[in-house]
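Bug #77: duplicate submission created two jobs. Keeping one. Sequence:
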Amino acid sequence: MFGKKRQIKFDPSQQEPVLHKSICTGETTAGFIDIATGKYHDYCKIMSEDDIEAFCRDTGIDRGQIRTVY
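Kept job's structure:
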C-alpha cells in the first residue's frame, strides 16, 4: 500500500485545484473543490514546496492555476 502512486481523477470542467490552509494551525493540504457543490476533496498534506511541485506533476496542473482557500 505504501509507496504506490495514488491515481488522480481530475476533471477541470468539474473540479478546481486548491491549496487549503487552516487559519488556526497553518496546516496546508492540496485537493480539489467540486465546482457544482463547493465541497472540498483532500488529496495530500503539504509540508514543503516540493510537495506542491509533486501535486502539480501528478495532476498535470500548472502552479499558477492553484489558488489558496482558507
